[in-house]
Specification:
single chain; 389 residues; alpha/beta; Aspartate Aminotransferase, domain 1; Aspartate Aminotransferase, domain 2; 7-stranded mixed β-sheet; 3-stranded antiparallel β-sheet; 13 helices; 41% helix
Length: 389
């Protein structure tokens, strides 16, 4: 993978082990982004009001082919949080309804559901998942203990943020479908990290970020909605698509694409990102990254005398690994790693737990993880940041 390092703008003086947060855009894709932005500035009226819809359609069609779904079932948005807000606002929560989730979801999404449930007198159930996982059946059993006759929707991550676990969302969606319960999968980390087929997944709603593992510029994500449910999903922003003077064949697209002046250039880079991955045999690149992640996991666990959160296999671990640690000041640890050791890596709180999460992409090597290991080893021996391990 060494030949791909020069394809990224990342600071060579930083050991970058935090691809999972915001991704990183390769030079050819970023140049495509700038091409679209320049076209926008040269003739903004034509770009936004005439050509833009055709450009968006072309991009959606490319993304839909990659995700194995219909292009008319996708709309672009800036980030998955936007998509979660859109669905939470639209599903018609009522007093007494329950939204079933886990206690290992992304914090911003927790806040969205807490907000809308509080507004309507509904309940957001953060079902406890016992860690470490032993197998997927254990997870499924733990999760469905939170199911009740009041469950209106299931919200679950495809790959969790803080714990970096691949969850059995196919099985969860299938079971929910058999029970007539709506499902919403937060796939922020999924596209290009794991294989994804939205047609067979059976999720009613799915959101993913293209600016993470697909490597587009920041602010490029999508929302998928089952065709039968699209009429019930209101736009988060009411604009020209509502009662459009020139409606398209899809009210869903009108409502969620036509939202006034915005630079949607990032959305248009998806075909280039897909081409970049194809040209560089990204399945092989991703497989090598996953191998690097997994082959280092045990030694990091041994350093802190802790256990991995799940079996270190492809079923649960992709291009990220979260290490549970004892640390009362995780923010201080994160700044120390960055400022003294020049390592970019998240140190995250999740309720009372703390995790260090390393993520690996094409520009990383074993040397990067060795640098992290030595830094943590030194901090452990010279400070009391880790408490008793």
């Amino acid at each position: 993978m060494a030949h791909l390092r020069d394809q990224f703008y990342l600071d060579q003086n930083i050991t970058f082990l935090n691809f999972g947060s915001f991704g990183a855009c390769p030079k050819p894709i970023f140049e495509d982004y700038q091409k679209w932005q320049i076209e926008l500035e040269r003739e903004p009226v034509q770009f936004i009001t005439v050509n833009g819809l055709k450009y968006l359609q072309n991009s959606r069609e490319a993304l839909a082919q990659y995700l194995s779904c219909d292009a008319d079932d996708l709309v672009y948005c800036n980030n998955p949080s936007f998509a979660v807000n859109t669905i939470a606002r639209s599903i018609g929560l009522k007093a007494g309804d329950e939204v079933l989730s886990t206690n290992i979801e992304y914090g911003a999404c927790d806040k969205v559901w807490q907000y809308y449930c509080e507004q309507q007198g509904a309940k957001y159930i953060r079902q406890k998942i016992n860690l470490p996982l032993t197998n997927k059946n254990q997870f499924i059993d733990d999760f469905f203990k939170g199911l009740s006759a009041k469950t209106k929707l299931i919200f679950i991550s495809h790959i969790t943020s803080s714990t970096a676990l691949i969850l059995p969302v196919q099985e969860i969606c299938d079971i929910a479908k058999s029970k007539g319960i709506l499902t919403f999968v937060d796939g922020a980390h999924a596209p290009a990290q794991v294989e994804l087929n939205l047609s067979s997944l059976n999720a009613d709603f799915y959101t993913g970020a293209c600016h993470k593992w697909m490597m587009t510029p920041k602010g490029c994500s999508f929302l998928y909605v089952n065709r039968q449910l699209q009429a019930s999903i209101d736009p988060l922003v009411i604009s020209w698509g509502y009662k459009s003077a020139f409606p398209s064949h899809s009210l869903f697209l009108d409502y969620h694409q036509m939202q006034g002046t915005r630079d949607f250039s990032a959305f248009l880079t998806v075909p280039k990102a897909l081409a970049f991955m194809k040209e560089n045999n990204w399945q092989s690149v991703s497989a090598a990254c996953k191998q690097l992640v997994r082959q280092n996991a045990e030694r990091f666990c041994a350093l802190f005398n802790t256990k991995a959160l799940a079996p270190i296999t492809e079923e649960f671990i992709g291009q990220m690994f979260s290490l549970p640690i004892q640390c009362e000041e995780p923010e201080k640890l994160q700044r120390l790693l960055f400022e003294k050791y020049h390592i970019e890596i998240p140190v995250m709180r999740m309720d009372a737990q703390v995790f260090i999460r390393y993520s690996i992409n094409a520009f990383n090597s074993q040397e990067d993880l060795d640098i992290l290991y030595k830094a943590l080893e030194e901090i452990k021996s010279q400070t009391n940041l880790f408490g008793v391990n």
